[in-house]
Predict the 3D structure of the following.
Amino acid sequence: MSIQVGESIPALTLTQATVEGPRELTTEALFGGKTVVLFGVPGAFTPTCSAKHMPSFLQNAEALKAKGVDTIACMAVNDPFVMQAWAKDQDVGEAVVMLADGSAAFTKALGLELDLTARGLGVRCQRFALVAKEGKVAYLGVEQPGAFEVSSGEAVLAAL
């Protein structure tokens, strides 16, 4: 079962992709005392993620911040080097914190894993977006397979 509105974000460590290289980041440091939008994608450089999901948050970053969002973060079950390369490809700059969940530990703790082993892709993250306020989930939009409706930057903006 996936995390629900009102529940606390699990305490784990992710890897942040930075221009200086990988850096550990605890969920307490990321979510504590802030309003954070976290969106998860099945994989960096994948078609919908690159053509729609990431651009929707980049295009709405200022509007999200104007609504009180302190941090916008993107997570995928990829390594931090892939996330850094994808950030560069998407011209993310400082708008989105890029997070690698290489072993899917955080994804599994959220209950948002997607088993694509039969397709040779291993365990990935479902496409989702959540808003956390002071470490508690205030909004959760998890996409049905193949859909892109409840996890976009526009959907999150409308939910705030």
The mean pLDDT is 94. Strands lie at 13-18, 21-26, 35-41, 71-76, 97-100, 113-115, 123-125, 128-133, 136-142.
